[in-house]
Amino acid sequence: MISFDKINKWYGSYHALCDVSAEVAKGEVVVVCGPSGSGKSTLIRTVNRLEEIQSGKIVFDGQDIHAPRLNLNHFRAGVGFVFQSFNLFPHLSVLDNIMMAPVNVLGTKRSDARAQALALLERVGLGAKANAFPGQLSGGQQQRVAIARALAMKPPAMLFDEPTSALDPEMVGEVLQVMKSLAKDGMTMICVTHEMGFAREVADRVWFMDHGKLVETGSPDSFFTSPQSPRAQKFLSDLRSH
Amino acid sequence: MNDIISIVSENWMLLLVGQYPHGPMGGLVLTLILSVVGLALAFPVSVLLALARISPFPWIRLPATTIVYMVRGVPLIMFIFWVYFFLPLLTGRTVSGTVTMLITLVIYQAAYLSESIRAGIEGLPRGQVEASRALGMSYLGTMSRIVLPQALYNMLPAMVSQFISTIKETSLGYVISVNELTFSANQINAALLTKPFPVFMILAAIYFVLCFTLSQLARRLEARIAGKRAGRQKAHPVPMPTVAHVVTK
Q1: Nearest CB to A85: which of B150, B236, B249?
Q2: Element (H, E) at A17
Q3: Residue B226 at interface with chain A, using a CB cutoff of 8 Å
Q4: Domain encompassing residue B156
Q5: Assembly ipTM
Q6: Closest CA to A28 of A131, A182, A138
Q7: What is the pLDDT of residues B189-215, one digit of tens each?
Q8: pTM greater than the 0.90 cutoff
Q9: Total domains present in chain B
Q10: CATH code: domain of residue B243
Q11: DSSP class per residue in A152-214
Q12: CA nearest to B228 within chain A
């Protein structure tokens, strides 16, 4: 579904991603973890080309994403992306936030887009908030709307960039709940997250990154109980000591 | 005070519309026409200038930047003279003072306004553009539906203060005989000869009332939109993160 082949990215002389190669199968849930600054967010932001890479190849759903004739807007419309800071459009109601891209990018009829948006809001448990503005919602609610907004484009895969890191602790659960139900429905997902409980419970594979390198991959069980690399061992013991 | 009342009651038509209907429209009405039309024409120009100023392409960015800095670098009155003397040379025909003033105001206001719009755009969190582009929205769609509506709202106060200064700047049309409000007041002063103080008192009062009312209106408008975004229910138990709040996290 998504494959990275020897991708490299530099910010000036800083080597942000270093020969990363990996593959995500259809329906698989991958959790990317690692210390901050290790390139996790950069990695998933390369998938919808919010970050450009300098070398390597990324294939998404059979499409080489750097193909010269690629229609970038059309391609991005098919990649669900959820940001750490929600990035809802504050001047639009919740409903209009969700309908914006289907109507303007896919050309969906407003009435259809509306019905779909309402159904998605029900799915994330916010049916009653359709006419609210983002500023009226809690962080957790905003992030659930952001997930609904991404789902409205019917993406074959969803990317989550630290979706719960900007939330107060009591709101983390409601967002993870929505992500779990997505995973249960067979959505292909890459989640950058520090929620190790979520990783244990939902992930099919865990990728551990450090200094721009994909250091270790494995099932959650093997990763959490017997990490191979010393850096992963240190990362996990640091987490536990909190 | 009696002077003021009698001057107003005898000359209110001149102050309001100038020589009209026996001559061209003038007075307060012309002042308002110049300000409204000037700003209305300057607005689209300023949006284009602002977009050009933040363009990643130097061949778009540099000319726009040059124009903005040149216009902002000279006093308005000098700019009026430039347009006044050079426009007839360029077009080969005489241009009326009113049209000269209008053109000057459009260029001048567009340059200033474009800087506020640019600041409004650059003040938005980067995530807004990213979220829009990540959904597959085009550059133009992102600008017109996500960025500009927010940026323009954020700069509403700046825009009203721009409008207010435009109203005041139309008085400079006096030097090229645009018969706007200040010109009318001067006509009255010239006719009365001995009463400059009450005449210019009246003039000042009209400008003040106009501009003060506008700035109050702007404040109300601002509060209304802000209220709509933050939620009308006053007693809201949940802490509401604002855009700024989210960005700092």
Answers
A1: B249
A2: strand A14-24
A3: no
A4: 2-248
A5: 0.92
A6: A182
A7: 999 888 899 999 999 999 999 999 998
A8: no
A9: 1
A10: 1.10.3720.10
A11: TT--SEEEEESTTTTS-HHHHHHHHHHHHHHHHTT-EEEEE-S-HHHHHHH-SEEEEEETTEE
A12: A133
